[in-house]
Amino acid sequence: MKKRIVSLILCIMCLISTFVIVTVPAQAAGETSIVTLDGQQFSFYEFRTSWSYAVYLARTTGREVIFKLCQDYYPWTSSGSIKFNGTKYKYSKYDFGVDMRACDIGMGLASTDKIDAFDDGAILVPSGAKITIDLNGFCLDRREGSKTRDDGEVINVASGGTLTIIDHESRNDI
Predict the structure, then answer these.
(1) d(C-alpha 98, C-alpha 101), whole Å
(2) Which residue range(s) make up the domain with 90?
(3) Is the pTM of this model over 0.85?
């Protein structure tokens, strides 16, 4: 009888722990950023697509877009290629991203026009785009160390582009 009671208690504990695991609201594991336009939020699990979408929204709507980091972000550490929606894009070491076609971002975009969101691997705020980056306690680091070189910048703001950087969860200096 004791074995049955212990077994029943263990079974109930298992069910409770399963219920708790299922019902506890989880942070989106792997979420890199959140893009917000007029209060509507779009979560992304890939930095390059989220930045491209932020640039796309800022350019096509003429409105300010908020780009909130959800984790530290670093560039690729070697050259290579990556596929988005079947299109292959090549990148170089220390690149944050590559310019993509709008349709490769997803989000229901059909245009095959290229979104100019990166400049020689640096994050680009193009002319006509108004973007606020909320570091949210995280960092963007090109991992160039103390080396100085041409095109070593992290962010390039083109003439006519507007960038504001804030940090609502500051853990470090900006």
Answers:
(1) 10
(2) 33-166
(3) no
